[in-house]
Amino acid sequence: MKTCPRCNSNMDDNASFCSNCGFAFNKKSIMPKIVIITVVAAAVVVSIVVGRFAYNVSKANSYLQSLKECADLMMDGIDTAQDIYDDIVAALDKLPKDDLNNLYDKFKDVLNKLSEDESFKIDLDKVKDSLDEVAKIIGNTQDPPEG
Questions:
Q1: What is the per-residue pLDDT across 40-63, written as a single tens digit (0 to 9) for each?
Q2: Contact 65, 137 (CB under 8 A)
Q3: Chain segment 77-117, per-residue pLDDT in tens
Q4: Per-domain residue ranges for the chain?
Q5: Are 76 and 130 in contact (CB under 8 A)?
Q6: SS3 call for 102
Q7: 130 CB burial (10 A radius; 0-12, 13-18, 19+)
Q8: Cβ of 110: how many Cβ atoms within 10 Å?
Q9: Does the reported pTM lie above 0.90?
Q10: Which of 29, 66, 105, 130 has the most CB atoms in a 10 Å sphere around its CB?
Q11: Could you give the CA distance from residue 17 to residue 66 in angstroms, rounded to a whole number?
């Protein structure tokens, strides 16, 4: 004898249905399928959220690295520009100070002499290369990450 879980009526062990309420004894439960579908759906959602988070972190790190490279190059350019400025000031200091009327011409002469100096040319090229590299990095840098 088996008992119907719905109405508690006693049935024959071979009965497929309850003769009192019609409950199907051999009916397969769909509950495990619902649990499996729910677990799979939750896993997919979690995977998407974690993947998006990882992507955003990666994008943020890449962006910050590009900014750091630009800052480093700019600092190198500033150091080199300071060297160039110091060279110009040193050359101007060597000029006689009594005649300020021809300062423009004297400044042009100093720049012309410095431009013939190989180390001065190297410094100018360093500044130009730094600026070119910064422009390249900025051009290749994606938009800042959201958030």
A1: 899 999 999 998 888 888 888 887
A2: no
A3: 788 888 888 887 787 777 776 665 677 777 777 778 877 88
A4: 2-140
A5: yes
A6: coil
A7: buried
A8: 19
A9: no
A10: 130
A11: 72
